[in-house]
Structures are given as C-alpha cells and as structure tokens.
Amino acid sequence: MLTSVEPLLEGRRMVICAGSGGVGKTTTAAAVALGLAERGAKVAVVTIDPARRLANALGLDELSNEPHRVEIPVQGELWAMMLDAKRTFDQLIEHLAPDERTRDEVFANRIYQQLSSAVAGSQEFTAIAKLYELDQDGDFDVLVLDTPPARNALDFLEAPGRLTRFFQGRAIRMFLRPAGLSGRILGRGTGVVFGVLQRVTGVDLLRDLSVFFRSLGGMIDGFTERARRVGALLEDPATTFLIVTAPRHDPVEEAIFFHRKLRDAGMPFGGLVVNRVHQPPPADLPEAVAEGLGPALAERVSAATRELSALAARDAANVRRLRAALGDPPTIVVPELDGDVHDVEGLALMRSHLFE
Ligand SMILES: Nc1ncnc2c1ncn2[C@@H]1O[C@H](COP(=O)(O)OP(=O)(O)O)[C@@H](O)[C@H]1O
Ligand SMILES: [Mg+2]
C-alpha cells in the first residue's frame, strides 16, 4: 500500500487513468493533475465526460478542443480540456490533407461525417491522438488523460491498431483502385441497389463513397503513421497507466482483466487507485454516541455502525482479492467521500487522499 501516488508519477510525462465506467476515472485524473500542479508542474488534464458540475468548476462549459488555464492558485499551472472526438478527428484531417480542396471535399462528404463520429473517430483513438499532439507540442510537463466510459477498456488499447487495419484493409484498397466503384468491382445487381437507395434517400451513396475514398487515398499513409506513433506513445516508458477501480465485484474483475491486457500488450502499468472505499467506523462509536441518546436512537446508531462495518469489511476483502490477483502492485486507497466531487474543494479533498 502506498500513501501517495507521487512515486508512481516520478519522471512521467503521460499519466493515463483507465478503468471501467463510474469508478472515478475523471475525478481521479483531475485530482492527480491538481496535485502535480500544486507541486510546481505545468499540467494539462484531458477529460472525456466530466460530470456537468465538475466541468463547470474547471471552466469547461464551452466546448473547445484546446486546453485552457484553470484559474486557481497553485505553484505550477493547471490546464484542462474536454475532448471533443469529432473536432479532433477533423483537425487530424486538416493536418493531413494535402490541400484545402481535398480537406473540404472530405468534410463535406456524408461518409466522412458518419465515419468520423462512428468508426475511425472513436473516442478511444482521438483521445490518444490528441494526447500525442499535446505531447509533440511540448507545452506541458505532464499530461493526465481521463479515458472514455469504455464498454470495454480494451477498445482504448486497440484503437490505434484497429484504425491502422481499417486503412490498410482490403475494402478501402478496393475503393482506391483506379477503376473506382463503377461497373467492374460492384456487379450490376449492386448498382441497382445503390440506384434504388439513391432514389429513396436522395443520397448518392455510390458517388459519395468513391469521392470519399479517393480524396482519402493520399492521406492513408499519414493516418497509418499517426496510428503507429500513437501506439508507440502508449508503450513509452515515460507513460504510465493507473488502473482506477472501485472495491466491488464487477469493477475488480474488469481491473484484473485490464491489467492482464496491459501486461500482454507491453504497456507500462504504474499502480492501482482503489476509489470509494468505505472506512470502518471507530469500534467504540456506538457507546460514545449512545451516552447522550435515548435507547431508540442509540439502537439506530448502532445499526448504522454495523452496516458500515459490513461495507468496510466487504470493500477490504475486494481490495485484498484484487491486489493478490495483480501480485501486490503499488496501491492507493481513496475513501468514499461525503457527497459528489463536483467543485475545486472536492477535488482538493480527493487530491489530499491521493498525495501524501
Ligand atoms: N471518492 C469518492 N467519493 C464520493 N464520490 C465520488 C468519489 N469519487 C468519485 N465520486 C463521484 O462518482 C461519480 C463518478 O465519478 P467519475 O469520476 O465521473 O467516474 P468515471 O469517470 O470513472 O465514470 C461522480 O459523481 C463523482 O463525483
Ligand atoms: Mg469519466
């Protein structure tokens, strides 16, 4: 057990908070960034889906795809941004397009519009693509990344490879052949189907498709290279993954699974943050309180105490199981706090549990 995340962050330029949904990734990322900023670093926290009020507290209400400074008195600097997956993908196209005409052609394309918000624009990929960009710019000492509420934490690790495979796949290569989509490749039957679709929907899908893939053609190498570097960034020794979890059955199982995948993929695992752990009440609480209360109230206090003890025992058992499964990794425990963490004071409290 550690009393501070500090040794896990030593010399790291990139801290990725991963784990299943609802365990406190966003909150942990923000609190870690705050702690580092207080220690003098210039830090940017890249959040994905901050709870509304936390977003407000960080001044993140207006969607901008660039970090902005959080006005709080710290020795270093705290910057925050909320990731907009679609905007990031657009910026990537802008960057890779050889000229303005190609860029506009891609943007205007219905297939691109679908694709950028669905397949290739998956939050997982754009999150690390943005991180890569910020890292390249070199404006910050440390970047702290919150991760998407992944249905599957692995989407995140696999996103660069998936994107690369998509662009190298047979389907896309086929569209890029000089003959395009016309005649030869798609049989007549398909042509009829597209024709009917166009009449019904008013969308010239066939044209859209071929224009899209043609204009994208020249950018494929750029994409592939970007995906490769993003993949390399994840494995960099200056990167560390903190697995955030809660001391309950399902999040613990997912943390064990995710840890194994990290290891198999050769990605740097830093340690565990077990969040929202119930602390056992002081053993003499009922007696101490009962003195001033009538018997009925005293009984209720004692029932609540028993309940909390049971929760604390269950949480402790889950923490033990998790640590045993991971071979006793560095672990920080953050207690269940009274109420949500939705403002800077809440973050500061969270930070005080994460740092010595
Ligand atoms: N230690 C804690 N004690 C009490 N509430 C917490 C704690 N950590 C997080 N929360 C609350 O739990 C909710 C989910 O946290 P969040 O960071 O958004 O999770 P995630 O990003 O993993 O989905 C938020 O409302 C947050 O304020
Ligand atoms: Mg979140």
Gross geometry: elongated
Number of helices: 16
Secondary-structure element pattern, one letter each: HEHEHEEHHHHEHHHHHEHEHHEH
Distance between the termini: 13 Å
Each distinct ligand: adenosine-5'-diphosphate, magnesium ion
List key phrases describing it.
356 residues, 8 strands, binds adenosine-5'-diphosphate, elongated
Q: In summary, what is this structure?
A:
The protein is built from 16 helices and 8 strands. By secondary structure, the chain is an alpha/beta fold.
What does this protein look like?
This protein is of the alpha/beta class and 356 residues long. It is 56% helix and 13% strand. It is built from 16 helices and eight strands. An eight-stranded mixed sheet has the order 3-4-2-5-1-6-7-8, with helices on both faces. The radius of gyration is 25 Å and the shape is elongated. The two termini are 13 Å apart. The protein binds adenosine-5'-diphosphate and magnesium ion (MG). Adenosine-5'-diphosphate binds next to helix 2 and strand 7.
